[in-house]
Design a protein that fits this description.
single chain; Glutaredoxin; 7 helices; 7 strands; globular
């Protein structure tokens, strides 16, 4: 029995340590390393799906306000959907080209598991790659409070 428990603990350790090394894809199909998207000092990950009406609203709002958020790097992570669905939505919204570069796909929803996301949309606030907060919406005040109080 002890051997089985040790083996299960070992498998859990491997899965947690491996989770930082898998790759995501941008909308052009290029691989994007997790470490690359979280290397900025202040990074906000937006977890979303096309079928979620609140997620779509957050994308539209972020598109309108994206240029107003200074000193923050956004990464917009689609969870578990095919690229064709994402592309269809993106075309319908006419996204800011700079924001569009920040979209990545996570077809297996690994980041949702990594950050224990239980509802979407979800914003994960990172400081030098470490989680410092999670919210289901954002505004300038929240961003200021999170990153200025660190």
């Amino acid at each position: 029995m002890k051997k089985i428990l040790l083996f299960i603990l070992f498998l859990n350790f491997i899965s947690f340590s491996y989770s930082d090394s898998y790759n995501l894809s941008d909308l052009g199909g290029n691989q994007v390393a997790y470490d690359k998207i979280t290397k900025e000092e202040n990074t906000i990950l937006l977890m979303w799906t096309t079928w979620c009406p609140y997620c779509r609203k957050e994308i539209v709002d972020l598109n309108k306000n994206y240029m107003n958020y200074k000193n923050v790097s956004f990464v917009v992570v689609n969870l578990g959907e095919k690229k064709s669905k994402i592309d269809k939505f993106v075309k319908s919204v006419k996204l800011n080209p700079e924001l569009l570069k920040k979209f990545v796909t996570d077809p297996e929803s690994n980041l949702a598991r990594k950050f224990n996301i239980i509802g979407i949309p979800a914003y994960v606030f990172l400081k030098n790659g470490e989680v410092i907060a999670k919210y289901n919406f954002i505004n300038k005040q929240i961003i200021s409070e999170i990153y200025e109080n660190e």
